[in-house]
Amino acid sequence: MPHDAVRALKRAPLARPSTEAHGGVRRRTATRADGLVQTGDGGVTAFHDNGGRILHHPRVILMFWGAAWTNPATNPSQAAFTGAIGNLISGPWGTQLSQYRGIGPMALEKTVTIASSDPPATFTDPEIQAMIEAQINAGVVPAPANGVDRVYCVLMPTGHSSGDTPYVGQHQFFDFNGARAYWAWITNDGTLTGGNSIPKVISHELSEAFSDPDLGSGILVDVGSDKNEEIGDVCNNTWTTVNGAAQEAYWSEADNRCVIPIFHSFPPVSGNPVLIQSRFGKQGNFELVSPLAAGGLAHFWRNDDNTFLPWSGPIFFGGSLGAVDAVTMIESNFSSPGNLELVCRKGSQLDFFWRDSGPAFHWNGPFPIENGAAGNPVLIQSRFGTKGNFEMVVPSATGGLVHYWRNNDIPSLPWSGPTAFGGSLRKVNAVTMIESNFSSPGNLELVCRVGQQLYFFWRDSGPAFHWNGPFPLQNGVAGDPVLIQSRFGTKGNFEMVVPSVNGGLIHFWRNNDSPALPWSGPTFFGGSLGAVAEVTMIESNFGHPGNLEVVCRVGQQLYFFWRDSGPAFHWNGPFLLQSTVW
Ligand SMILES: [Zn+2]
Asked: Ligand 1 center to residue 17 CA distance, Å?
C-alpha cells in the first residue's frame, strides 16, 4: 500500500501513527508504556491472513554498518545492541507470533561489522541493498535461500537517516540469484530505550518481517478504512523497557490487543514438584503442580502448541491447607480429555483434589483421604479393573510403606487399604511408582529412598498381589527418586532420576530387553545447581521415541532440563522456570 499523505491529513488526530508504506516505522516521540502492556487495542477492526509467505523459523543477521561501530567510544556499543537484540530473539517477546501459522522460535544467526565503509549521512534503499549484496558476494554473510527464513538487518550509527522516507526503520526485500532476500534498516537515536532506539525499532521491523515479509500478502489488519496494515504499525505507540532495552508491542489477534510478552517469576516453591504431559491441547500440554513456600499449591502449565513453549500460571488452590509437604498428580480417564487428580500430604494427613476437564477448570478439594503418612505419596491410574483403579503408595509415619487403591468401577469410588510392606526398612523418606508392561495387566514397580540408599520393590499382577523386595539399588542419593518406563528399547526401559548427595542429579536406566534386567548409569547432570531438593520426570512426545523432561527444585526455585531422544542423549539445562505474561 503506497504512502497516502492526503488521507493522513484528513484523519488527524490519531492515537497511533498515521499512514505509512508497509515496512516503515515513523519517527516517534510518543508516550511510552512501562511494565506489562494492559491496553493498546490498536483500533483494529478486521484481521486478514492473506496466505502469502511468512517466516516460520526466522534467522536474523545483524549488519552493523560504519567505522563508528569499531570505535570504543561509541555508546551504546555494538555489543550492547547485540545483547539487547539477542535477548529479544531468545526471550519470550515473540510468543504471540506463534499464533500466525506457527512462527517461531527464532535465532540470531550471525553478527557482522562493516567497518570498511560508512553509510551516507542521508542514505537510500538502493545504497543499503548494494551494500548487502556486496557482503553476500564477499561471503561475509550467507546468501539468501528460499528454504531459509533469513532477515538481513542493517544497523546504523547515530546521525544517519533515510533520504527516501521520514521513517526510522523499514523492512523490504529483493531477489538475489533466484532467492528472495528479506532485509531491514534501522536508524540509531543513541539510546537503548528511546522511542526511536535500535531495540525498539528492530522489534517492530522483525514482527512485521516475520509475519508479512513480502509486503502485503501475509498477516495484516484493518483500522477502519485504513486497510491492510502490518502488525507492528498498529501498535507503534506502545513499548516498554525489558532487561534494559526497548521492546515494542505487536498486534495479537488472539488477544485482540497489542502485546509485549515478558517473563514473570514463579512464586517461591517448597516440597516436591510433579510434572505430567496431559491430553489438553493438540500436542499435549505440560502440567506442573508444586507446593508453595507461602502455603497451598500452585498449578502451572506449558502450552506445547505454541512454538515458544510458554509456561502460564500460577493458578492457586488448596490455600486452606497452609503449608503442604508433598504432592503427586495424574491425568485420569474421567471426563474428557481427562481430569487432573492430585493427592497431597500435609503433616501426616493425605488430601485429595481433582480438576475438571473444562470449561470451569476448577480445582475441587481438599477431601481428606487418610492419616499416618510421611514422605511423598505417589498416585497412578492402573489397568486393574474396568475403568482403571487408582493406586497410591506412601511412606508410613510408623515405618515402611503402605498401599491404597481406589475402586473406580464403583460409583462411590471407595479407597481400600492400607496394605503395609517394606517394614524392615523402617523410616522411608521418599517413593516413586509405575505400572509396567511386565505381566498382565501390569506389575507395580517401585523405588524408595531410605537415607542415602535406594531400594526396589515390585508387585505381581495377581492373584498373589505380593510386594517383592526390598532389593538394594544405588547409594549416595537424596531427595525423591522418579521412575518411569520409557519407549526406549523394545520392551521399554526403566528410567530413573534422583538427586545426588553431592549435588546435581543422577540418571539410571534399566535395560528391559536384557533378561538380567541390568541397571546402567549413573549419568550426572545439573551439577552447577548444587544441592537439588526434589525432582519429577516424564517422557514427552517431543522427539522420537520421546525426550525425557525433568523439573527439579533448588531452594525455592524450579529448574527444567530435557534430554534428547538420541543419538546425543544430552541433558540440556538447567533452565529457570518462569511464566510468560503479556
Ligand atoms: Zn511497520
From this structure: 10
Q: Which fold has domain 331-581?
A: Neuraminidase (2.120.10)
**Checking DSSP bridges between strand 363-371 and strand 378-381, what pairing results, if any?**
unpaired
**Rounded to the nearest 10 degrees, what angle do helices 78-90 and 198-211 cross at?**
40
CA-to-CA dists, residue 58 to 92, 102, 153, angstroms: 14, 11, 12
pLDDT of residue 43: 82
- Name the grid cell of 45: 477492526
pTM of the model: 0.92
Cα–ligand 1 centroid distance for 133 (angstroms):
23
List the CATH code of the domain at 40-260.
Answer: 3.40.390
DSSP codes, 323-389: S--EEEEEE-SSTTTT-EEEEEEETTEEEEEEE-SSSS--EEEEEEEEE-B-S--EEEE-SSTTTT-
Does residue 11 surpass a pLDDT of 70? no
Residues of the chain with CATH 3.40.390: 40-260
- The position carrying cell 547432570 is 525
Average pLDDT over the chain, rounded to an integer: 93
Largest CA distance in the chain: 89
Region(s) of the chain under CATH 2.120.10.70: 331-581
Going from the Cα of 26 to the center of ligand 1, the distance in angstroms, rounded, reads 8
How far does the centroid of ligand 1 lie from the alpha carbon of residue 21, in Å?
8
pLDDT digits (tens, 9 = 90+) for 131-166: 999 999 999 999 999 999 999 999 999 999 999 999
